[in-house]
From TrEMBL:
Gene3D superfamilies, per database record: YVTN repeat-like/Quinoprotein amine dehydrogenase
Protein name: Uncharacterized protein
Chain positions of WD repeats: 103-134
Residue intervals passing through the bilayer: 6-25
A GO biological process held by the record: endoplasmic reticulum unfolded protein response
Residue ranges with Basic residues bias: 43-57
Superkingdom as given in the UniProt entry: Eukaryota
PANTHER family found in the cross-reference section: TRANSDUCIN BETA-LIKE PROTEIN 2
Key words of the record: Membrane, Transmembrane, Transmembrane helix, WD repeat
Keyword set includes Membrane: yes
Coiled-coil ranges per UniProt: none
Bias (Basic and acidic residues): 29-42
Length: 373
């Protein structure tokens, strides 16, 4: 009887031992498998992110490559819609570090762009028969909602604001007259009257080829012209026109891509000017004529630049091509201001004046550093 009991106890002990060993082995295997699965998931996720990043890079390269291989008609359709019919190729943003954003909405070529005197909004006119008012504060964000006003049976080719910003004038393409508008930040542009008037004051000499475009400074002290021969000139026009005094040439230079329709603009503070031709924007010193910076891919290949302007604070430069508006930071001017102010310190006799100029230079250097310049 005792032997039978011992045998039964021994069998029970062996069974329990076998069960423990087997359960522990399963638990270990499950833990190992779980660890392996987690490692596998991490690896797959890492490969997926890497593949996604690579895919995004390849997509950008494909977009750029696709744009280069398009015809002009395809490019124009792409600019209007933002992507082609199959949705595979989109308009790539410029790669230059000065690029801020693109303003989209016009469905036909933009003909003019100008800032309101308050500097709070940009006005654009287009062959799509609309005038659009873009809030400046939206440039830094992604939500660009302009106020749009329609021109019935005609469109505006050139546009300008009055000094107080409460009125504006535009040249009608069909009637060749000037249309006056009331301006409101809520309702946009309201037509008032059409007029026709012109008067010659004087001429700016110097170009050996036809002048393609000109611009005045904000204070009307300077005028700049750009010609099809690849040259630009800047003049001091603060002279006595009634006595037939000639404007004084301040600076001149050449621009990189001569064309039949170059554009020129003078900054609000008269420190710099910029020349745009084809897809290139170049920035120059008004003081010396020196080339300060060049953006070579301002717009897509084949989409020639149609207009240039500065905002009232000289923080941004605006360029247009076909239906798009591109916004750029005006950092090169800050460098030019530092150079001019540094020269001014040497001639300033008053110590408080020197300290004030040095403080301005320090602030400009701080602003440049914030953008990695």
């Amino acid at each position: 009887m005792v032997d039978v009991v011992q045998i039964v106890v021994a069998l029970v002990v062996l069974a329990i031992g076998a069960y423990v060993v087997l359960f522990a082995g399963k638990k270990g295997s499950a833990s190992e498998r779980k660890g392996q699965d987690q490692d596998g998931e991490k690896k797959n996720k890492k490969n997926k992110n890497k593949k996604k990043s690579k895919g995004k890079k390849n997509k950008t390269e494909d977009d750029a490559s696709g744009v280069k291989n398009m015809s002009l008609k395809q490019l124009q359709r792409l600019y209007m819609k933002g992507k082609n019919r199959k949705g595979k190729v989109k308009v790539p943003d410029p790669t230059d570090p000065l690029f801020v954003t693109a303003l989209k909405g016009h469905t036909e070529p933009i003909l003019d762009a100008v800032f309101a005197p308050s500097g709070t909004a940009l006005a654009t006119c287009s062959e799509d028969r609309t005038l659009r008012l873009w809030p400046r504060k939206s440039f830094e964000g992604s939500d660009h909602k302009p106020i749009s006003s329609r021109i019935e049976l005609d469109h505006i080719t050139h546009f300008a604001f009055s000094t107080d910003g409460k009125a504006a004038a535009g040249v009608l393409a069909r009637d060749q007259q000037i249309r006056l508008f009331k301006v409101s930040s809520k309702t946009g542009f309201t037509p008032v009257k059409d007029i026709a008037h012109s008067h010659r004051c004087g001429r700016l000499p110097g170009h050996s080829a036809p002048t393609a475009h000109f611009a005045f400074s904000r204070d009307s002290a300077l005028a700049a012209s750009v010609a099809r021969d690849g040259t630009w000139k800047c003049f001091n026009i603060n002279v006595r026109w009634d006595l037939d005094e000639d404007p004084r040439l301040l600076s001149e230079n050449t621009y990189a891509q001569p064309s039949s329709a170059p554009r020129i603009a003078i900054s609000s503070s008269n420190y710099t000017l910029c020349v745009g031709s084809k897809q290139t924007i170049e920035m120059f010193s008004v003081h010396s004529g020196e080339r300060l910076y060049a953006i070579t891919d301002a717009h897509a290949p084949g989409m020639d630049l149609t207009h240039l302007c500065y905002d009232m604070d000289d923080e941004f430069i605006i360029s247009t091509a076909y239906t798009r508006v591109h916004v750029w930071r005006n950092l090169p001017q800050k460098r030019e201001m530092i150079a001019r102010l540094t020269e001014k310190v040497r001639t300033e006799r008053n110590q408080s004046g020197k300290d004030r100029i040095k403080a301005q230079v320090a602030e400009l250097q701080k602003n440049l550093k914030a953008y990695g310049w």
